[in-house]
Each structure stands twice: as C-alpha cells, then as structure tokens.
Design brief:
single chain, alpha/beta, Peroxisomal Thiolase, Chain A, domain 1, 2 domains, 10 helices, 13 strands, binds acetyl coenzyme *A
Length: 327
C-alpha cells in the first residue's frame, strides 16, 4: 500500500494560556531585569498554564483548531502523535487524553514522543513516514509542553526562558492540483550531551536525594551545540535537495533565544525578515514552539502558497531536526 499523492500540511492550529507573565513580574521573583532578559534572549513575556490547564488541554485546543483549519473532523484522524516532554502523567499517554477530548476514533494510533524541543520535528517526520507507508491517511501532529511545571522559580538562569503552549498540524494527502508537500526531513541526536539539559528527577531511574524534577541546564554549552546542530541540519537538507538558503521564503526555527536565531540567519545568509520569530511573546515553549510559530506565520500572511519553508529545531538530548516544506 502506498499513498497516491504526496503528503502535505493541510491545516495548522495553536493554543496558548491566557495568563501572561512578563519580565518585570519575574524580576520580583529572582534577581534579574527586563533589560537582561531582553538583551540575552529576546524574550519579553511568556504564557503560564493555570486553573486546570495541562499539556493535554492545551494540546486538545491546538488540535481542534488545526482540524477546523484543515476542514476535517476528528473521525478523519487515524494517527495522533503528541510531542511533549511534560506529559500530564507517566501513563496513559497525553495523546490518549487528547483522543478522548477531541473524539478521535478508536481505530487510531495514539502515542507520545519525547525529543524535548525537537519533538515536533521528530513527530512530523514519524507521521510522514507512517502516512507514506499507506497504512494511515490523516495524522494530527501536536507539539505541547507545560515547561513551567518543571521550572525552578528560584533559579534565574532557567526560569526566565520557558513558557507554556501547544501547536498542531494536520498531515494528509496533498489536495488535488496543489504543489504543497513535505520535501525532506533530517533528525539527529548528539551522543554524550544528556547532562547539558535535563530534568534529573521524576523518571524511573534510581532516585538520588538531590535529583529534582526541575530543569537544569549548562546554557553556554547548549547554546553552542544548538547553533551548530541547526546550521548543519539546514545545510544538509538544502544541499541534498539542490536548494540554496536564498530560495527559502520563510524559516521557522525553534524559539529559544534570539541570538541563536540571529546566528542561524547569518549562516544561511538570509535577510532577518525571512525568519519568523515570536519568542518575545512566548519564550521557549519546547515542542510547541515551532507549530505555534508556524500557525502564527500562516495566519499573519507570512507564509503563502508555493513558499519553500524550513522548520529547524534543537532540544534536550541533545537532539536536533529539520524539515523542508513546500507550502
Ligand atoms: N538575570 C540576570 N543575570 C543573569 C540571569 C538572569 N536571568 N541569568 C544568568 N545571569 C548572569 C549569570 O549569573 C552570569 O553572571 P556572572 O558573569 O556574574 O557569573 C551572567 O549573567 C552571564 O551568564 P551566562 O550564562 O554566561 O549568560 P549567557 O550570555 O550565556 O546567556 C542563556 C544565558 C540565555 C541561558 C544562554 O546561554 C542560552 O540561551 N543558552 C541556550 C539555552 C537554550 O536554548 N535552552 C533551551 C534548549 S531547548 C529544550 O530542549 C528545553
């Protein structure tokens, strides 16, 4: 079995909590300032899930919006992947909670995938491969994280960086007459870098007294690997498809730090206007970052039919990944 047409993104959606936490509020929690955070990261504010909002409820909100955008019903979905490193529970998967919330049918594969901030690109690639097998027809691919639940609010080196949210796409056979399609994807993970960015407690490994369920990070080293990983994956994807950076209409990078994004733009020799950035309003939302930005880029008219797009991410692992998309 193989699909008759290429696989394309048929719809996008996103959901962000209403509660906004700005830099001035954070300056009252830890020894930091609006000026430091903006200069070093570009972040002005982030969203924080509260009042019963969870990774699953945000994911369901984004998924619902993506289905509406695609003009499809939950019954059309036979593959549901939620990329997250902050699932509501160790089990069942967040995808199963979202399945019930949306009314996705029983004969659908539902599972979570954890590649931290690269999770959405990983999930897109996995969904694409499964659709290309011909055994599934429509996939709902969601990136959702509630990283504020894993933030140490006394640690100024990490708590200023993260926020909550969800973004989603629907993948399926390209519409007749459309040139829209997924072109290529590449994933990777750098061996020996696990301790640079982690949540050391909460898993099934033997607990040490000091293992906490909070994010710990060696920021400078993550920064260097992030720049290298994103540049290399972008270079490889373009080269093996006979494309140049100049042909990219829009790059949607993982929204972690404006300085990382500037370095990527410089490397690709792209005018900065071709890079979509919304991190000033959301901070780093992990697996939600790219689909949330993609949804905003599309709805604001920054992405048009026929455009060549690059999605590129890095995250804990350390992992990285990229995807080339014809819109
Ligand atoms: N406010 C004020 N001062 C601060 C703050 C803060 N919030 N945080 C750190 N500082 C201080 C430090 O203590 C240090 O002071 P010192 O010189 O007296 O020791 C000084 O500022 C500089 O600190 P650096 O860590 O060197 O700052 P840097 O320029 O490297 O920026 C940052 C730190 C923003 C974390 C940067 O390294 C970065 O963005 N790294 C990448 C992190 C990232 O993207 N992580 C997410 C990965 S995705 C995922 O999977 C979750």
């Amino acid at each position: 079995m193989s699909p008759a047409s290429p696989i394309a993104i048929l719809g996008t959606g996103s959901h962000a909590p209403a509660r906004i936490l700005n830099n001035d509020e954070l300056s009252r929690l830890v020894d930091t300032s609006d000026e430091w955070i903006i200069t070093r990261t570009g972040i002005r504010e982030r969203r924080v899930a509260e009042g019963g909002e969870t990774t699953a409820t945000m994911a369901a909100g984004a998924g619902r919006a993506a289905l509406a955008d695609a003009g499809l019903s939950p019954h059309d979905i036979d593959l549901l992947i939620v990329a997250t490193c902050t699932p509501d529970l160790p089990m069942p998967s967040t995808a199963c909670l979202v399945q019930t919330a949306l009314g996705v049918r029983e004969r659908a594969a539902c599972f979570d995938l954890n590649a931290a901030c690269s999770g959405f690109v990983y999930a897109l690639d996995q969904a694409w491969a499964l659709l290309a097998s011909g055994r599934y027809r429509h996939a709902l691919v969601i990136g959702a994280d509630k990283l504020t639940s894993a933030v140490d609010w006394t640690d100024r080196t990490t708590c200023v960086l993260f926020g909550d949210g969800a973004g989603a796409i629907v993948l399926g056979p390209a519409r007749p007459g459309s040139d829209s399609r997924l072109i290529d994807a590449q994933l990777g993970a750098i061996p020996g870098t696990a301790e640079l960015l982690s949540i050391p407690g909460g898993g099934a490994s033997p607990a040490t007294p000091e293992a906490r369920r909070c994010i710990t990070m060696k920021g400078k080293e993550v920064f260097k690997h992030a720049v290298r990983g994103m540049e290399e994956v972008a270079r490889d994807l373009l080269a093996r498809n006979g494309l140049t950076g100049a042909e990219l209409a829009c790059v949607v990078p993982h929204q972690a730090n404006l300085r990382i994004i500037h370095a990527l733009a410089q490397y690709l020799e792209l005018p900065y206007e071709r890079i979509f950035v919304n991190l000033e309003r959301y901070g780093n939302t992990s697996a939600a970052s790219i689909p949330l930005a993609l949804d905003e880029a599309r709805r604001s008219g920054r992405v048009k039919s026929g455009d060549l797009l690059l999605l590129v991410a890095f995250g804990a692992g350390l992992t990285y990944g990229g995807a080339l998309v014809r819109w």
